Amino acid sequence: MGNIQRISLSQRLVQKAEESRRALPEVYYKILRKSVGYMRDSGLFDGALKTGEPLPRFHLQNAARIFIDSNDLLAHGPLVISFFRGDWCRFCSETLSALSEIDGEVRELGATQVAISPDLPEFTAETVQKMVLPFEVLSDTGSKFGLRCGISYPLPGDLAEAYHAHQFINRHGSADFFLPIPAVFIADQFGIVRLAYTEPDYEKRLEPQTILDTLEKLR
Question: Within its chain, how far is the Cα of 109 from the centroid?
C-alpha cells in the first residue's frame, strides 16, 4: 500500500505545543513540563506492556454504553489500541484527528482500531460526535485497563492543580485522578503485542504511518 502524503503528526503537535505554552499560566506550564522529566526518570512505566507479551483482555463500554470485548475484535484481525486523556487535551484531539484520517487504511489492512480514555461514556459520546470519529472510543472506568497495561498513573497534588483535576470527578466518575500517558499497542490476531509505544511526554505521540507500517508487516 503506497503512503499517502500527509503533514506528520509530530509537525501538527509542535503547533499545539506552542498554543499550549501561550494559553497556560507560566507557573502551570512549568509544573507540567517538570512532571514529564519526573515521569521519564521515575521508573513508573518500566512495567508497561511490551512487544511479545499477550494483550490483557478488556470488556469496556463504548460511547453508546455497549460493552466491547477485545476477544471479539481480535476475531476479525489485528487490533490497534490508542490511549488518550480526553478531548480537553489539545494533543489528544489532534492525535484522534490523525487516527481518523488513517482509519480507512487500517480497515483495508484487515485491522480494527479503538481509542481508550478514562472518560465516562457520556463524555466519549461527545468526543465521537464532535470529532466525527469512525472508530470506537471506549471508557476505561477507573483506569483499570490502563493500569493493567502499566500506562496509567495517579496525578500528584501539584499536577492535579495544574490540570484543574476537579473536572475529572465528573468526567471519570471518580476522584482518583488517574490519567494515561500516550500509548499505542498493536496486537496480532492471536492477541500478541507486536508494537508497544509508551511515551511519558504528553506532547509526543506515535506517528500514524508507523501504525500502518506495522499492520502491513502483519498481513
Answer: 21
Whether 1 is in a domain gets the answer no
2 inside domain: no
- State the Cα–Cα distance between residues 78 and 22, nearest whole angstrom: 40
Phi/psi for 194 (5° steps) reads -110, -15
Range of the domain at 212: 9-217
Residue 146 lies in a domain: yes
Task: Output the CA angle 114-17-42, nearest 5 degrees.
Answer: 75
Using alpha carbons only, give the angle 176, 89, 115 rounded to the nearest 5 degrees.
80
Cβ–Cβ under 8 Å, residues 107 and 213 = no
Partnered with residue 154 across adjacent β-strands are 178
SS3 4: coil
Contacts of 213 (CB under 8 A, 6+ apart): none
How far apart are the C-alpha atoms of 150 and 79, rounded to whole Å?
Answer: 18
Number of separate domains in the chain:
1
What confidence tens digit (pLDDT) does each residue in 152-182 have? 998 877 777 767 766 777 788 877 788 999 9
pLDDT in tens, 40-56: 998 999 999 999 999 99
- For residue 135, give Cα distances in angstroms to 27, 106, 128: 37, 10, 8
Per the domain annotation, does 213 fall within a domain?
yes
DSSP state of 18: H
The CATH number of residue 93's host domain is: 3.40.30.10
